[in-house]
Amino acid sequence: MDAALLLALGLLAQSLCPSAGVPRLRQPRTLYPWRRAPTLGRVRRAWVIPPISVSENHKRLPFPLVQIKSDKQQLGSVIYSIQGPGVDEEPRGVFSIDKFTGKVSLNAMLDREKTDRFRLRAFALDLGGSTLEEPTDLEIVVVDQNDNRPVFRQEVFTGRVLEGAVPGTYVTRAEATDADDPETDNAALRYSILEQGGPQLFSIDPLTGEIRTVQVGLDREVVAVYNLTLQVADMSGDGLTATASAIITLEDINDNAPEFTGDQFFMEAAEAVSGVDVGRLEVEDRDLPGSPNWAARFTILEGDPDGQFTIRTDPRTNEGVLSVVKENPLRTSLAEGAAPGTPVATFSARDPDTQQPQRLSYSKDYDPEDWLQVDGATGQVQTQRVLSPASPFLKDGWYRAIILARDDAFPPSTATGTLSIEILEVNDHAPELSPPWGSLCSTPDRGSGLLLGATDEDLPPHGAPFHFQLSPRVPELARNWSLSQVNVSHARLRPRLRVPEGLHRLSLLLQDSGQPPQQREQPLNVTVCRCGQDGACLPGAAALRAGGAGISLGALVIMLASVILLLLLALLVALLARFRQQSWDKRLLHGLQDDLRDNILNYDEQGGGEEDQDAYDMDQLRHPAELAALGAPLGRPPLRRDAPFGRARPQVIRALPTSPADIADFINDGLEAADSDPSVPPYDTALIYDYEGDGSVAGTLSSILSSLDDEDQDYSCLREWGPRFSRLADLYGPP
């Protein structure tokens, strides 16, 4: 029976190569793993099945891989099974086998970066469960696809190089990784520079990522920092890409000489005064401010043969300070913040009167801060308290005092000595964040990050460059955030991965360059917001912008509640004021309606003058019959515009006079009613009366239209109307 065994190998080792694209559905090849090749005089050995290759990320599932068979039984009388990772071990269910046909299928997408191969065991049993063949190995190899982009190890690479460096000088190195198979082109990385922001002064090795200079002309005084955009691509440069930045800082060299700002400087010095500053000499130096290459040294070449002047350098401004030294002041130096009792100097005077030995004593003549103490017998000077760095008498780092020496003769003779003390800068301040808050985008691919700055109260060289570092006490900070140096005084903070929106409190460690260096751990409030394509926070983003100032949620709630309470109080006050005003208006209106004569009325128009032809319609004075003939409308006169509230008082129907004696009372009552009625013109204007009709009992009131001559008029009856009309009777009546 063994002689009849044959091995039919239809292998699928390269059946699913990535370059072949998506394979079509096909019938799997049949393998006979238990057949043995015939040999003469030897023990026969089973064939080893070559690995079966299948591409990762295969989407057409289930996908037939292979079919295994045993020729010891007829078809349908053998039960096939497989075991191992991907079947009955994690990850389960990836592979399966048809127990009657022996067809092995792929049921799930494969990821080579998680599992690059599967080793299974194949079994063949008869229908009764007895073993027909010995178990055999079945290995499935996952073929890599280019499904992973390369990733730079850092978002920002930094490097430093001296200005004027020769071509080929090493600057820094960029590194990237790729999760694809390193044995394939899917992980074959190539580096390049996309943008340099100017001339092509740098190059990058495509294989190693080393960045070097390629041209001369690096000048820090022209460009101090270069920002390069790097790219890495797999497939030997033709595949997936990623980008990063490289910030290259040029270090200063002493390649610029200081220059005076003017050809001549004019100064004046008082006679017989020493230890005082005469003036300043301004210079310019293009080297890095605060560095040794920038600090100027001044020398008097000629014009001062006796050495009466000296020039020292102001470390803050780099100016030369010219001072008089003709009386030879005593110069010394002390460290900033010297403790009380620190020795400063010793003055020693000599008395030229040798024939009369005398005893000398020492004292202070000028000490504006009362900082020094002088031993009267020895002339030793020491500090008696700490001098404030903010003292107004500390000029350019120098403090001046005058010491007096006196003998005991009568009268005593005196001499003065000038003491100039230089206060040496001490690194006694740690750098501080400026400002200690800011905002950035929640995702690493949006925005430029948060630019952090630092300041230091100390003078160079105890200040910049500063070193920024995430606090080592909190290791999780380095997993979520990256901090890269930008220049000597700034650094850039970025998230390594997506971080939640809102306020994040970070802790940073800052260190200066003094000796010994000072460092300080400081909190940084970072507001993380959702950003748009331009890297700016979107309106209505979940980030709490006020959190940058360190305002907590509880404080905001209290502030909001206070504002609402103030608004409610203001509304209540306004309602009370309105209610009181309405009550007052009602009382005032009631009083006006009770007696209008007790109030002062404002009349906008006086009218009624001889030349006033516009205030009132003069045609109304004509006879109503003539007005009707002219087509003029008859009706109520217009209301007075000065009447309060524009309301007319209802007219009272009065009885007509029955005799001439009653006419005076009738007219007086009418005048009083007109004076008090706000709805009619005032009494000193022509009043408009309605036409009473023909046959009136009272007769015609006026004859203005009936006659233009006064000769036929008899005004003697006016005397009977009372004292108001007696004047008219005298003017128009008979003498």
UniProtKB/TrEMBL annotation:
The keyword Signal applies. The chain crosses the membrane at residues 553-577. Cadherins are calcium-dependent cell adhesion proteins. Residues 334-362 are annotated as: Disordered. Residues 71-152, 153-260, 326-433 form the Cadherin domain. It is a single-pass type I membrane protein. Residues 1-21 form the signal peptide. It comes from Odocoileus virginianus (White-tailed deer). Keywords: Calcium, Cell adhesion, Cell membrane, Membrane, Repeat, Signal, Transmembrane, Transmembrane helix. This is Cadherin-15 isoform X3. Its main location: membrane. The keyword Ribonucleoprotein does not apply. The lineage of its organism: Eukaryota, Metazoa, Chordata, Craniata, Vertebrata. The gene is CDH15. It comes from the Eukaryota. It is found in: Cell membrane.
